[in-house]
Structure formats: structure tokens, C-alpha cells
Amino acid sequence: MRSKNLYADFFCEKTSRKGKSPFLTFLLLIAGILLFTGSAFAGKRNFALSGPYTINQTLPTAGNNFNSFTDFSAALTAQGVTGNVVATVTPGTGPYTEQVIFQNISGLGAGATITIEGSGETITSDTAINQTGSNPNRHIIRLIDLQYFTINNLHVDMFPGSTGFIGIHILNSGNHITISNCVVNMGSATSTLLGAFVANGIASSILTPGGTFDLISFTGNTTTGGGYGVSLSGLASPGHQCADQQQYHQ
């Protein structure tokens, strides 16, 4: 007796005659298109960075936006740069609670620079930073062995109760680095374990010399509290600039 399921009979008959049904062929075609599109998208995400970007924690990391400074740093390390990169912190989206390290960025040069435009927004740690022993993680932002990097108009706050702190730390080596119009607030504490802007060769110290630096510029910055406004302890190199700094002790 012939099956009452006419659709199933038709499907099986067509499959047995021609090997593949039109429906199965259609599914394979769609799968191929999705696979190709996914591969192309993955390749596009891995292109080196160039042009304008935003840092906005109210939006996910996607397209030209990064949810955090840490995501921006990770992309720079993974993908490198091929042209000038400007990451603007979207006004009104702070404060950002994170400690971030920028390092191992390929492609940096005079025609492929990185600028973080802080828009007056604030970055701080999510807990107090304590100087227990030789704590190598006293920074909020750390630049390791970088060149052609600018941070402008960013506020860096020390978490209350911190006993060891470096606002922006240039570590090991650096050249053509500019820190401008930034504000570092260390409250009323005046300990020599607290520094706003530091360039040296030791992660856990402020004054220990070491590192090679050239064309480092600190201009128009303001610091409050702490033991040091700007500390540069490296091998002798020409071209450093430290101008128009203002330091206040509460």
C-alpha cells in the first residue's frame, strides 16, 4: 500500500533519482554563504588599526568602538597600526575603572601614531592600590617600550586609601611620547610612594633609575597631592620637555 505521507514519498523519490534534493542543495548553498561571510568578517576584524575610534563603555566592543581602555589595548597589540589612530573617549561615559597596559604594538612610527583623546573623562582603579613589598602594579595607565603615543585631556584618579600609586607610567623605554592637559588627583596624601607621571625602568618603583627615553613631553598637566608630580629617571637622552605643569597639595 502506498504511504499516505505524499511529501515524504516525493522527497525520497526525488532524492533516490537525482542523488540530492533541491531542498538539500539549497541548505548546502546557504551554509556555504554563511561560512564565507563569517570568514571574511573575521579577516576584516583582524585588519591593523587606522583612523578614528571611540572608547565608550555604554556600548559593546564592535565596529569602531571599544568598551574599555583594556579592549582598545588588546586590539592594538593583536592587530597593530598602519596609520594614525585617534581613540576619543565619549564625553559623559566615565568614570572607567580599570588598570591598563599598552605594549607590543606593531607598526608605530611617524606616520602611524596613537592618540587617546580623554575628553576630560576619568579613569581609576576599582580598588585601593597597596604598596605591599615590591608591588609591580601600581599604575593606572602604563606604556611599555612604546613610541609615537599621546594621551591628552584625561583625568586619572587615585582610589581613596591607596598606599602606592603611579597615574601614568612610561616603562623601560619610550620616544616621541606626549602627556598633555591631563589631571591626576591623588587626594591629600603626600607619600613619596605616590607619583602622577613617572618614566623609569622599574615597574615597582618611582625613583629607581633605568630605561632609555627620548623626546618625552609633559605639558599643561595638573596634579593634586602625592609625593611627585613628574619623575623621569633614565639614561641621559636629549629632547625631554616638562612645561606648564601645576602641582597642588591639599
Description:
Helix content is 19%, strand content 38%. It has 250 residues and is α/β, with parallel strands linked by helices. The chain is globular, with a radius of gyration of 26 Å. Residues 1-18 and 36-44 have low confidence and may be disordered.
Gross morphology is globular
**Annotation field: number of helices:** 3
Uncertain regions: pLDDT < 50 for 5+ in a row? 1-18, 36-44
Q: Please trace the helix and strand order, writing H or E for each element.
A: HHEEHEEEEEEEEEEEEEEE
Look at the helices and sheets and give the structural class.
alpha/beta
Integer average pLDDT: 83
Strand content: 35-45%
Helical residue percent band: 10-25%
Output the radius of gyration: 26 Å
Q: What is the count of β-strands?
A: 17
Main sheet attributes: strand count, strand direction, barrel closure:
11 strands, parallel
- For the terminal residues, how far apart are their CA atoms? 97 Å
